[in-house]
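Appendix B, record 7
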Amino acid sequence: MDRIEADRARFREIVRGRIRADLGRYLSTSELIAHVGERAVSVPIPQVELPRFEFALGDEEGHGQGGGPRSGHSSSRGDAEAGEGAAGDALGQHALEVDVELEELAQMLGRELELPDIQPRGRRDQVGDGPRYGGLRARGPDSLRHARRTFAAALRRTVASREWNPAHPRVIPVKDDLRFRAPRPAARPQSSAVVFHMMDVSGSMGREQKEIVRLKAFWIDTWLRSQYRNLEVVYIVHDAAAKVVDHDTFFHVREAGGTRISSAYELCLQVMREQYPPELWNVYPFHYSDGDNWSARDTERCVELLRTELLPSVNQFCYGQVRSAYGSGQFKKDLDLAFGADSRLVTASVADRGEVLGAIRAFLGSGR
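Structure tokens (predicted):
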């Protein structure tokens, strides 16, 4: 069994090496996102070939007994008449799925993009209940047995029952003397963060643009979850008006109205003030659009909200602009002109899936 476990561990390490080598490809495709669970993701590895037997035809000489398979039949497929269509001679492609913890995937992402660990902005810790073994109880596992308290209880019982002999001191604990450490709830600081994913869902944002947003959001959340013990995600969609939606609606809703970006920023501020006060939470807003806004006046309103309300309250604000056939891309130009080299605001353009990696590096590379 030891040899089997050693071989299995070595095989899994080889597979993980292939995942690390192909991580750039997974960053720009939806192949991996479709297999996400609560704590792990199943990564398909089509390059790994499964071992297989090859059988010779019956008229060839060999050392086995019997006539062997009849001509035209395959030992691995059964009767040819049982299926439909002609039999082929091409080798099949076998995909192996390996479960990888999301935390391990985040470590791979950090190494691939050379991401620094995030330094929380100011004192933003959420107090949570954590166990401390400061109590005692009469039952428990041997690993939690309190030797000193057990001996003290046995000594008291021995003295009280007049079995104590100073000339021959001897204390033998019985079952009722045993004492075990017990957990006692205690408050401890717990680093917490909230992510706001805001997306333009007007008619100019098509399926491909939303898929690019989905890729970026998955990898951003994966990295931030590795940095914070408690992470919450809020999804906001907007056209001319903004609303909070769930995860599935965020990636599948399609509207046909105009675009008023300030509606999303105003809703983000409202939710943040009511549920995630900046003095307690690390706040990360991400906005995705194709760069078209309703008017220059609304863009001025967005700049005002960012300068006076959002940027002073958040760790970092990120704007990702995806190219579409109908988007002008003007909003990113306006933000870059208004804020220049302000490190609190990061903008990135994504023309296609191949540029997703660069956008994620730009968003997460500062370690804010």
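Remarks on this record: The beta strands are 40-45, 96-101, 125-137, 180-200, 230-238, 242-245, 282-289, 317-322, 345-350. The longest helix spans residues 207-227.
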